[in-house]
Design a protein that fits this description.
Four copies of one chain form a homotetramer.
Chain A lengths: L2 E7 L4 H11 L3 E8 L6 H15 L5 E3 L13 H4 L20 H12 L4 E4 L4 H9 L3 H4 L2 E5 L15 H5 L1 H9 L4 E4 L1 H8 L1 E2 L1 H8 L4 H10 L3 H6 L5 E2 L1 H10 L4 E11 L10 E4 L9 E7 L1 H12 L3
Helix pairs in contact in A: 1-2, 1-13, 4-5, 5-8
Chain lengths: ~300, ~300, ~300, ~300
């Protein structure tokens, strides 16, 4: 039985891999992607997603969402991601986003799926927050919301305190965690850093796969390898594709727990910090946080996909 | 030449008078009202607006907007306003809001008016903020945005620091003042408290006008008179109808100036405080703040309207 | 019966006049002054105070206190005050501050006065906060604490929201208002701006007084006249000397009320804002705020003093 | 050559062990302890310290410091610590604190030691902050300040975000990290949780040591064992005694690094969070943070001490 899903994305690097996973995993019924301001310039993100469609030889409707965070000015991660596609380019004629706004598309697809729609949000949560503010019942219409963001009592990336997605739009993240979704969190640290980093050994294996998908992966993901290594991360990081994987292959999750998650919106030092309380502070749980995965299984999930021709 | 406008309202008390002004002032071309969470229960606000249509014997489309502030839980002013209509009731059959969401309606009407649409926002700014986040160009499409909110370096109402509309949704207010609208502010203090309070003398004059409109005014507005007097305000307050008046009758404004307006979103003590800097602190102006009006002219504007039969 | 007092000061301009009032008013028993970081450089403030002693031909012990605000870096008002003494200078030989720290001196003098000591604090509240943290009972040992600071639901000076003394050290101000002092507040606006500004007419009268004190006043206070006028204040401002006056001549106070005063410490936009709640928000009163004075009486109090030879 | 030190403490549980280490380690020249508001009632803390002197059969001067955090109300950890001494009691006659205030004692001892004084701060940093505010040069007079507090990009204890010492007085902690001390941080997590927890095996070994010191350790530290286990910590925690150990036995530190440490003071959700930036965010280092210790060496250090008769 296919799994209907939408991916909400600020397409750069691992977002591309996540979209590939949504397009190419057999059990996935990817109904569209929605674009949100995040990693790199909005129009560049759109191009990155179209390039991903192109290499997958498959496309789904793309809906454009918010070009700005909810309350704050946009801050990019271009210093990390460059153009987010390792300099790849192509002819974009024939690729056009839909006219419908991402927020309206999310609400419509939720209606059409009648309680079966899943959303994997791998960028700042602006679109998801706007959707639930436009229609509060959206939270209960979504079967499962997987959010890539925050760290589970561990280091951030854009600051010591904060991971990028929540930092860019902390108010949106706060709204989402207050809204009553059935939400699962894929955190940056420790989870991604421990179990979803591909070191040079894995990257070498991928480089030897003779498929356009693998070549695309190498071009797109290896672009930040030098940067990652310079900040002590021994490989490319895959939190976004992991987020799609945990929806489509829940057996990859080997440990998770209920947490109360709240987001800092009132201070600059800790802007976007996700307070993940593990149950000893008397706060009601509002999210499942993934603590451990089957890392080999996740790697093989991606390797198998990249081997498709 | 008629003035096209939309009123964005949390309909209670003076919002009703503002809607009357929009419906009945000859030069007004009221194209709709949009409802936003604020003073009293959302559904009660809808009823209050329909009662206003009913007494005016004229109606325009009503679009329902956000039932919640952007980021925070809703806080009502029901302790002040009661039901916001002085206990009036009626048969609501035949009165139905439109299906279109207020935010979409605002964007559509802005398109249709081709640069000529005015918006008078007399509740929390949630709808306006959502509209400008959905389409950033909305700010330049609106010819003139009149906002009732904040105080100009003077006392608040819901707290010492803050006026109700900005307190309820400070993030929305911050978005609106950052968005680039041509915006005019009608502040609570000192302007409203000095020049838009109707004491018992004026209320007595209104009570003697033998029209349904005047009776409606008396029922609706006098409901909070005892409360107002208990907190030192010698009459009923009319910031919302004043906001409509300054759009329709700009000659009523006798003094205004350019200010930088920014809204406090990061602290509880000063939540919703509007920092209105009058030009000596080196901040760029982003709003016109009304400092003085022709108070007699405003009073007569309302009295004339209430005398219509 | 003399009134024992200490003046805690960041000596510049009107602080000098306040110290003169403490030295020269017959009923005052000025037991010392304590220096705190504020208006201008700390060492410059010390010199300004010694010049004041010199022109008064009378001196009291001077104790040096905190050279920094409690938590934050120091911010000066030198752009407003210059050196705070209108460029005056003198031979400082023979003038030496005491070795005892201001905080210890305050605590010792409170002990010695056995419940009769008054403190007039006309700079940032760092010293007073440190004293009450070193010994919590200090709050009840002080008979009357007069604080110059904040605005009473009116404009600030260093920002729209905040008056300088509370802005510079908001945490200290918060501590003081939480500590249980019998405290009276002399606010910047509206009180000082309405009733303690000397326009060119009064300044001309002072300029014609043929005493060293009047010459000193003119040199020191008129230095900021051009600045004041450039920001819309039609004369020199005298909140500090007013604070001494209301202690020594309580009959000058014609209207005051009980308020809850709390200070913003958690936000930059409203840093140092004093929330003065006038009794309608359900908060317990912790301060008396002066609302009106006998402005002519205050002016004559200073003119008489400046005429002393 | 003996190492002169002062321990600043909120004496409960492991603070007692830390004081024992200061008293009984041969190379330590403990010149006094200073008491600060923290874990349990201030007077209870004083008793706990005297009991520690008593069991060590050795005492040093005790100076009483701040009974309140700098800006905020006191919050105890009595729910965790009980009385902080496992219900032990004794005859306190003959035990008296000094008259000198802790802050003055710190400053005097720094003078007397002429650049050689070390301070180990194992409670909230109120006293240290007050000392450096009273005399800014104190920061450079102290040879080495070891601070127990915060977490190094890992979970807190009193909240998800914050460790108790920094949570109780975040403003004091911020002052201390801004002041220019040569400061080393012993964090709660991961360091203490990974390497300074004594499980039931070690506690059993200690219980079998036939000395008054070991009996005292067992009574005092095991009191919270059940609580610790209930929140997932498999033993008693020893961050305070570790802090003394790293000063006296620097060879126990096997890994440390330079960090920028800043403390959250402006938000409730993240109150007291220590942002420890490890060098990739462009912030200047202001502290050494201990990342790993020789855990066996530390355990043996304490076991040896408890075996003393
Ligand atoms: Ca992403
Ligand atoms: Ca309204
Ligand atoms: Ca002053
Ligand atoms: Ca401790």
């Amino acid at each position: 039985m296919p799994i209907p899903l939408v991916i909400d994305t600020d397409t750069a690097q691992d977002d591309c891999v996540a979209i590939l996973a949504g397009l190419l995993t057999p059990e996935a019924d990817l109904r569209g992607i929605t674009m949100v301001a995040g990693n790199v310039g909005f129009d560049r993100q759109v191009k990155n997603a179209f390039m991903t469609f192109n290499v997958a030889a498959k496309q789904v409707p793309m809906y454009l969402g918010s070009r700005l965070p909810l309350v704050r000015p946009w801050e990019s991660a271009e210093n990390v991601h460059g153009d987010g596609a390792g300099g790849l380019d192509m002819d974009f004629s024939g690729f056009e986003p839909e006219a419908e706004h991402a927020v309206d598309a999310l609400l419509r697809m939720a209606d059409e799926a009648a309680g079966e729609l899943n959303v994997v949000a791998i960028g700042p949560l602006t679109n998801i927050a706007l959707a639930v503010r436009k229609r509060p019942e959206f939270a209960s219409q979504v079967k499962h919301l997987v959010v890539m963001g925050g760290s589970n009592n561990a280091r951030g990336n854009i600051t010591a305190a904060a991971e990028f997605n929540f930092y860019v739009d902390p108010e949106a993240a706060k709204i989402v965690f207050d809204a009553g979704f059935n939400v699962t969190v894929v955190p940056w640290a420790p989870l991604t850093l421990k179990q979803a980093v591909f070191g040079r050994d894995v990257l070498d294996r991928i480089a030897q796969i003779e498929t356009p998908l693998a070549h695309f992966f190498t071009s797109v993901c290896s672009a930040t390898l030098a940067f990652d290594e310079s900040v002590g991360i021994p490989g490319t990081t895959h939190p976004d594709s992991l987020s799609v994987a945990v929806l489509l292959r829940p057996e990859l999750v080997t440990k998770s727990a209920q947490y109360n998650v709240d987001i800092e919106t009132g201070s600059e030092l800790t802007r976007g910090y996700a307070a993940m309380s593990w149950g000893v502070h008397g706060l009601a749980a509002n999210a499942t946080v993934i603590e451990e995965i089957d890392a080999d299984g996740f790697r093989d999930f991606l390797l198998d996909m990249l081997g498709q021709t």
